[in-house]
Amino acid sequence: MTNALAVQELWIRRYHPAPQDTDLSLVCFPHAGGSASYFRPLATALAGVADVLPVQYPGRQDRRAEPPITSIPRLADEIVTVLESLPRRRLVLFGHSMGACVAFEVARRIEQRSSLGLLGLVASGRTAPPKLRDLGVRSMDDDGVIAEIRRLNGTDDRLLLDDDVIRMIMPAIRGDYTAVESYRYEPGPRLRCPISVLVGDDDPQVTLAEAEEWRDHTETGFTLRSFPGGHFYLAEQNTQVARALTEDLARFR
Question: I need a surface site. Which of 50, 84, 175, 246 has the fewest CB within 10 A?
């Protein structure tokens, strides 16, 4: 196995074979404490539309022995390097919550210094830079962190009652919250690619007005869609989200 392939397999998951009739890849970036497997249902729904490539951050699941990366810029740098090792394909980036910040910074790096073909950015469940909402979760004790996760309804409550599970996932959650809560937007050129924004209409983390502010970060097209649900509306609206992404992928081409 070549070093490039080993790095790809470390960072990138593929739950279905790539479609034979397209060179389009949808790269998916998870939320804080999340993993690549969160996007498995979406990958199934889009299996015939694009090569869906969820990113696996260090510190979770099969990478739990690795320390989490606690800096959004450093995480973006690492991921750009991985994407550049893939066969040359056209890319759309899709990030949810913290993943939207990571995807945005990856998009900026691609446009500034990479030969990758970036077609568009889809940001979900996240306020637009430079607006920040630092709740100090990274400094809370375990009970406080768990309470915040329950508030957002992002993890099965039964898992949060299992001490072994909590010990296993807490380092990644704390690392991710450190990354996203310490993230500071550095002003720069607007993206040349279009931006699509998805948000739950009852999301306590981002209002529709805040989601609309992503418009200021692109020179080209902008689309905003809302869906019934809270911060993790994707789990309840998988079919509708897959339909919206299919429309975006067609339009971005």
Answer: 84
- The Cα 150–Cα 109 span in angstroms is 34
Backbone φ, ψ for residue 197 (5° rounding): -125, 135
Which tokens is 19 given?
A: 């479609």
Please write the tens of the pLDDT for every residue from 25-61. 999 999 988 899 999 999 999 999 999 999 999 999 9
* Cα separation, 89 vs 127, whole angstroms: 29
Give, for 154, the enclosing helix (H) or strand (E): none
Among left, alpha and beta (phi > 0; psi -120 to 50; other), residue 136 is left
How many CA atoms are closer than 13 Å to the CA of 151, on its beta-carbon side?
11
Torsion angle of C-alpha atoms 180, 182, 187, 189, degrees rounded to 10: -30
Q: Which of 97, 115, 196, 226 is catalytic?
A: 97
Query: What whole-number distance in Å separates Cα of residue 68 and Cα of residue 90?
Result: 28
